[in-house]
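Researcher: First entry.
Model:
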Amino acid sequence: MKNAGMIALTGLGLCLAVLLAVPAVAQMASQHSHTQMHQTHQHDMARMPGLQGRDTTTDEVGDMAAMFRQFPSLSRQVTLLPNGIRTETSTADPALRDALLRHVIGMIDRVETGRDPKVRIQSPTLDIIFARRDRLQTQIDLTDTGVVVVQTSDDPELVAALQTHAAEVSDMAARGMHAVHEAMARRMRQ
């Protein structure tokens, strides 16, 4: 009988230990998954698989990769308007300027035609912009060093998405892929 009591107590203790450990194990697994995701992206800066999308071209991915690799060479200013945004992005590097222009013009064309690329690292703000593209007015002005884009709308939710997206792009221009990894980690926790 003494042994049976020990087994029951050991079994109960074991169950209790497992129940108490589950949250800690789940947290460790989540941290490991996040660390593994971060390390995978960090170590694959050559191919940048997160820039691939549903129908992105090699040239589009190449332009985005160039901007992420050379982000310290980009300068960006955003003005929040009551009904939208005004962004000015520039660089002294002519090749990077060409990549920037192709990207901006290409993405505006994609929005106007409803061809959401669904890039893996894409922000959810683009879902709103693509879904409400018929309520968006865009003006593009090329400069010697980059591009000025003004986007406006009478739709308050679209204006909010434009302003949030402009801040996200500014963060990427300031911090490169580090900003993307942090944003993706925040979305995974939500």
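Researcher: Second entry.
Model:
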Amino acid sequence: MSESVSLSGSLRVHDNTWLFRDISLSLHDEGWTCLLGPSGVGKTTVLRLLAGLETHGDFTGSIRTGSGSSMPECAYMAQQDLLFPWLNVLENVKLGARLRGEPVNADKAIEIISMVGLSNHSHKRPRELSGGMRQRVALARTLMEERDLVLLDEPFSALDARTRAEMQELAHELLQHRTVLLVTHDPGEAARLGDKIYILNEQGLEQVEAKKQAQIAPADGDETMRRQSFLLRQLRERVS
């Protein structure tokens, strides 16, 4: 069962400058939290802190769960696909369980590969795939992990518009009842997926909207367009 997760604090990089200071981020329990903002302000660093990965900086602050229990294990999808070049698509999708020495659910892997539209490519190695196909493999590998906390760093950025919309819908469906943090530059993506939306920039972190969505918003719906326009205005105001 997923639970809320929060991060608060500051991070100083090794040249003794602040990447961000005094931020406070709360992830939506069993829902999608979206983190918007320009490049270079620390969005990926926030993900890496939550994942327990190296950030090449000094973090002062705290990361907590709502119950005060230890941090849940997470599934993490980086901006790069990080596929193993000597493994084919199916082997890459099954990789997490293999590395942990756990039984591999091959049927589930095959099903998820089919869902992301790569059934005819499951035997291919990464060098034989386009950038968008590789990103879909990385998404399938993330969806394969049954983790309460899911951290996604621009997971749909290399996809064409139609495939991007389809993969957003698939991820939303398969990650129900999980706590998800999505880093994105795209206000339209946040408008579709976000239950809670934050903007991070050089001035700090600010929550700009919270609205629980049981279903993913239609890509061309009036409410989606309204939210997208609102978020775009917020982004522009915070860099002016």
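Model: Note on the second entry: The chain has two domains: 5-73+147-237, 83-146.
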